[in-house]
């Protein structure tokens, strides 16, 4: 089985997945004017109120009307994002409000809808704290990429061109980051999902899984580089990928089955987090086998030197 011969097909498939995500990042930026992703209160600041009703469930429009009644210049909480929470409650996101306003809103709900409203969760984050969290998140991803590059360069120092392995691993990792962020952008555009602290946790977990699987493939490439010295590099990499294929697929399928069960039966509160993990781990398995290892072959053969030769000869 020759996997490496179709490497440009794999790169093309990756582009087909990444480009729509980039498009929706731009659409989100145009729509919200805040960035490529709809950000949760953890990043942009705001208040999250989760409330459960006993009796008749009011509509989302009625909830929004009550919020508008208590909106002031100091606390502009108009146009809240109201999402169904289970079958008898709502998750309501708005700009930052204090406990006094929250209490008044709950009292107004109980009075208007003649039902008991139970507060399940109330969280407020100021805009300045949200900005600090966003900055810290960016530094966390950058630090992870740099640490991975240095670690792989050191671990593969006995192999010729050790820096290629670290660079290829980081490129595969960036592929997975773009896939995850792109899917989040699409979910945010169509379903109103927001990137919050759990999304960042899922993203960093995906980075770890992606690099772990890539190192497994690269470690076999390193071993075969010493054992199969007379074999050309492309054949040796293909042989290494095939040797690790069963292990990679079996390991990742076990995780994917578990996450799929959590998506189906785990409840609404963790579904967003689990779906992002599911997408990221699938992407990480793909990128380790079909991108990272293939980048090594392209680099070794210096194939970019021949990409435009045919066009130049024709001209």
User: Given the C-alpha coordinates, what overall shape results?
Assistant: elongated
Instruction: Label the CATH architecture of the largest domain.
Output: Up-down Bundle
The CATH class of the largest domain is identified as Mainly Alpha
The count of β-strands is 4
Structural class: alpha+beta
Radius of gyration: 25 Å
H-E string = HHEHEEHEHHHHHH
Mean pLDDT: 88
Major β-sheet strand ordering: 2-3-1-4
CATH topology type of the largest domain: Multidrug efflux transporter AcrB transmembrane fold
Report low-confidence residues grouped into runs of 5 or more.
Answer: 310-315
Strand content: 5-15%
Helix content: 55-70%
Number of DSSP helical runs: 10
CATH superfamily of the largest domain: Multidrug efflux transporter AcrB transmembrane domain
Q: How far is it from the N-terminal to the C-terminal residue, by CA? A: 37 Å
**What is the makeup of the main sheet?**
4 strands, antiparallel
Integer count of domains? 2
Describe this structure as you would to a colleague.
The protein folds into two domains: 4-35 and 129-306, Multidrug efflux transporter AcrB transmembrane domain (Multidrug efflux transporter AcrB transmembrane fold, Up-down Bundle), CATH 1.20.1640.10; 46-125, Reverse transcriptase/Diguanylate cyclase domain (Alpha-Beta Plaits, 2-Layer Sandwich), CATH 3.30.70. It has helices at 7-32, 41-44, 60-69, 99-113, 127-155, 162-191, 197-227, 233-265, 268-301, 309-314, and strands at residues 46-54, 81-85, 89-94, 116-125. The model is unreliable at 310-315 (pLDDT under 50). It is built from ten helices and four strands, in the order ααβαββαβαααααα. Strands 2-3-1-4 form a four-stranded antiparallel β-sheet. It has 315 residues and is α+β, with helices and mostly antiparallel strands. Helix 5 (127-155) packs antiparallel against helix 6 (162-191).
């Amino acid at each position: 089985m020759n996997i490496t011969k179709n490497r440009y097909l794999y790169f093309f498939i990756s582009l087909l997945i990444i480009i729509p995500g980039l498009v929706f990042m731009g659409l989100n930026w145009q729509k919200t004017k805040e960035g490529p992703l709809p950000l949760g209160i953890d990043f942009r600041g705001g208040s999250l109120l989760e409330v459960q009703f006993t009796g008749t469930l009011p509509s989302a429009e009625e909830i929004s009307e009550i919020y508008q009644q208590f909106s002031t210049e100091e606390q502009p909480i108009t146009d809240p994002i109201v999402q169904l929470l289970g079958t008898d409650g709502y998750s309501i996101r708005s700009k930052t409000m204090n406990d006094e306003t929250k209490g008044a809103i709950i009292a107004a709900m109980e009075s208007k809808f003649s039902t008991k409203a139970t507060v399940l969760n109330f969280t407020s984050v100021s805009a300045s704290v949200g900005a600090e969290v966003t900055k810290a998140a960016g530094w966390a991803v950058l630090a992870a990429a740099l640490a991975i590059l240095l670690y792989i360069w050191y671990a593969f120092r006995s192999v010729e061109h050790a820096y290629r392995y670290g660079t290829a691993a980081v490129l595969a990792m960036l592929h997975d980051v773009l896939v995850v962020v792109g899917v989040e952008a699409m979910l945010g555009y169509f379903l109103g999902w927001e990137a919050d602290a759990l999304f960042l946790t899922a993203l960093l977990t995906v980075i770890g899984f992606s690099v772990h699987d890539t190192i497994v493939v690269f470690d076999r490439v390193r071993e075969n580089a010493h054992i199969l010295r007379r074999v050309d590099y492309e054949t040796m990499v293909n042989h290494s990928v095939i040797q690790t294929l069963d292990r990679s697929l079996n390991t990742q399928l076990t995780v994917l089955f578990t996450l799929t069960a959590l998506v189906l039966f785990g409840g609404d509160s963790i579904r967003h987090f689990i779906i992002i993990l599911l997408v990221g781990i699938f992407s990480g398995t793909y990128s380790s086998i079909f991108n990272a290892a293939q980048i090594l072959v392209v680099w070794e053969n210096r194939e970019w030197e021949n990409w435009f030769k045919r066009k130049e000869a024709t001209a």
